[in-house]
Structure formats: structure tokens, C-alpha cells
Design brief:
The protein is an all-alpha fold and about 60 residues long. It has two helices and no strands.
Length: about 60
């Protein structure tokens, strides 16, 4: 489970940084919700990629 949590936390950290860390827009979300959407999409892709990798490894182990 730790293998999934770390990349997921990293993705959400990057999404939050993009939304809140613009110079002059610190702590301002208005107008930056598209970054939150892209971050959510990236996090979903990371979850799917992790599930595919773990599933593929499980299939390989089972077929040995």
C-alpha cells in the first residue's frame, strides 16, 4: 500500500502547488480551478497505472 500512497501524495502535492503557488496568487483558488482538475486527472491516471502494474505483477506470479 505504501507504494501507492507516496506517488498519490506527490500528485496531490503538485496539484496543490500549481493551484496555490503562483506568484501574486498565493492562497487564491478563483480562476485556478483548472489546475485542480488537471491534478485530479493526473492523480486518477497514477492510480490506474499503479493498479495495472500491481495487477500485472500478480498475474505473472500466479502463472509461474
Amino acid at each position: 500500500m505504501t507504494r501507492i500512497r507516496l506517488p498519490l501524495a506527490a500528485a496531490f502535492s503538485l496539484a496543490a502547488t500549481a493551484a496555490f503557488g503562483h506568484p501574486g496568487h498565493v492562497e487564491e483558488v478563483a480562476g485556478h480551478t483548472h489546475w485542480l482538475g488537471w491534478g485530479a486527472a493526473a492523480a486518477a491516471l497514477l492510480v490506474v497505472a499503479g493498479a495495472l502494474v500491481l495487477g500485472y505483477r500478480a498475474v505473472l506470479r500466479r502463472n509461474r
